[in-house]
Amino acid sequence: MNRDIQRYWDLFLILVEKEITLKYKRTYIGFVWSLLNPIFTAIIYFLAFSVFMRFKMDNYALFLLSALFPWNWFSASVLMSVNTLTGNTGLIKKVIFPKHFLVLSLISGQLITMLFAIPVLAAILIYGKGMPGIQWLYGIPILIIIQFMIVSGISMAIAMVNAFFRDLEYITGVVMNMLFWVTPIIYPLSSIPEKFRIILSLNPMMYVIQSWRDLIMTNTINWQYIGISAASAIIFFLAGLFIFEKLSFKLDEVI
Questions:
Q1: Distances (CA, A) of 90 to 100, 144, 237
Q2: Angle at which helices 223-248 and 135-164 pack, to 10 degrees?
Q3: What pLDDT digit, counting tens, does each position of 62-110 carry?
Q4: I need a labelling partner for 65 at 20 to 30 A (CA). Which of 20, 37, 163, 164 fits?
Q5: Can you state the percent helix, strand and coil of the chain, rounding each to 5?
Q6: Taken in order 66, 27, 148, 9, is the CA torsion positive or negative?
Q7: 157-189 pLDDT tens trace
Q8: Whole-angstrom Cα distance, residue 187 to residue 173?
């Protein structure tokens, strides 16, 4: 049993390494692109809302990036997971291994990008005369676990269903674009009227993103938001795992 666990762990690490190396293969600055993408996006939104539309908010750059980095981890993982199974047909048919490793390794690769973004956020906070607090030491791991479970559940379900229903790839892109605008990324959560929050709370990333922002900007943790997010994480993870396992026995027939 120990030998099997070690073998599976080694395989998982190899898949994570593959996700990282292949993504930036033949690029000159490689991994840095993952950090530049949300930074450039934040610059565009900063110019649009703070300069042209005169949207008043202190340290709006940090406000945006504290949400864009975790959102980028979420959106990139979900969008890339759509073709995870259909894009690894040869490996799936030739090698016996836990198929969900393909999805989880992709998410883990994107998580590494998120981890490298945390020092960037800390530097911007310090530049704005703030300082990371002790809350970061336990708040960041808690949020990473919660978001990892949410992303894993959604990604496993999407990856498996897409093997049977290929239109899901295009539907996912549309839904993710809509989800971006109903998540408090470019605007504060407080701007959402209370009567709409119950409906928008169905968005699993709504309170996760707000929790990241509270932690990064003010060194605070809203345990009510954490509780709601944790409950969503458990539901989405178990639902995604159920769908993945329920349909996996027919995977070889459809890919």
A1: 15, 32, 27
A2: 30
A3: 888 899 999 999 999 999 999 998 887 877 877 777 888 899 999 998 8
A4: 20
A5: 80, 0, 20
A6: negative
A7: 999 999 888 889 899 999 999 999 889 898 888
A8: 22
